[in-house]
Hints:
- This protein has helices at about 5-40, 90-95, 100-120; strands at about 45, 55-60, 65-75, 80-85.
- Strand 3 (about 65-75) and strand 4 form a beta hairpin.
- The chain has one domain (about 5-120).
- Helices cover about 55% and strands about 20% of the residues.
- The longest helix is centred in the first third of the chain and has 36 residues, at about 5-40.
- Strands 1-2-3-4 form a 4-stranded antiparallel β-sheet.
- The protein contains 3 helices and 4 strands.
- The protein is of the alpha+beta class.
Amino acid sequence: MTEKDTLVKLHETVAALNMMADAANKQLKAAEVVLNQMNIGIEVMLEEPIMPGLQMAYAKDDEGSWHIVAVFEDELKRPFKMSMLNVARLVRIHAARKVPLLTAALLHAAEEQLAKATAP
C-alpha cells in the first residue's frame, strides 16, 4: 500500500469513527436531557462494566450535577465519576449502546422506591 493509499484509508477510517462518536454523543445528550427533566434523583449503576474497569451510571458527578457518568477508580483506588460526554470516544460509543439498560435500571429503582414509599 502506498503512502497515499494509507492516508486515504486513514481518512475514511477516522471519518467512520467520528460519525459513530457523533451519533453516540447525540444519543447520550438526548437521554441525559430527558432524564434530568424528570428530576429522578436516583443513582443507579449498571452491574456489568462497559469496558474493563469502567462502569456506567446515572448519578451526580464529582461536581454535583446529574449526568450519565463513567465511574472508575483514581490512582488512590477511590471511585471517580465523570460525565460520559467527557470521556474517550470509544467509551462513549460503547456507553451509547447501554443507554436502554441504564433507563431500565432507573425504572426498576424508581418502582422499588415507589413500592417502599407506599408500603404500610
